[in-house]
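User: Hi! I have a protein structure encoded as tokens and I'd like to know what sequence might fold into it. I'm fairly new to this, so please keep things simple.
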């Protein structure tokens, strides 16, 4: 793997929005991105020089509930192990900051579900269903 710079600070709202769109994810408004990024429990960002190429975040209440979100890798950088690097760092955080009974969740789009399985994530179905309400 080429040398990349790993940071534990959220990216700028503009970089965040652009990476999400490039990775095929939904867009966010500048205001939503600014507020959401500021309220992250933990973030991992990966840069190639000054270009954001991968990221992931953990959100939640910091005790009972945690959610892994925003795992994104710029298409030109996919297949280089950056998604695995990001998830590994997020799991390290969770290993140190969760408690007995804490619940960690994520929504996985195929084929990313195979990445999360490598880190011990399991399917909730048929006991529960992932649901959402979009505004």
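Assistant: Happy to help. Inverse folding works backwards from shape to sequence: for each of the 135 positions I chose a residue that suits the local structure. Here it is:
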């Amino acid at each position: 793997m080429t040398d990349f710079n790993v940071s534990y600070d959220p990216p700028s709202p503009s970089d965040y929005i652009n990476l999400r769109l490039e990775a095929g994810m939904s867009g966010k408004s500048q205001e939503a991105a600014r507020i959401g990024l500021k309220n992250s429990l933990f973030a991992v960002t990966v840069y190639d020089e000054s270009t954001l190429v991968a990221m992931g975040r953990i959100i939640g209440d910091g005790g009972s509930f945690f959610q892994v979100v925003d795992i994104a890798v710029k298409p030109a950088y996919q297949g280089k192990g950056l998604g695995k690097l990001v998830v590994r760092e997020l799991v390290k955080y969770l290993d140190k900051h969760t408690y007995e009974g804490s619940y960690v969740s994520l929504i996985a789009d195929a084929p990313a579900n195979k990445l999360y399985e490598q880190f011990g994530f399991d399917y909730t179905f048929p006991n529960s269903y992932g649901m959402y309400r979009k505004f």
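A useful reference point when you look it over: The mean pLDDT is 95. Feel free to ask if any position seems puzzling.
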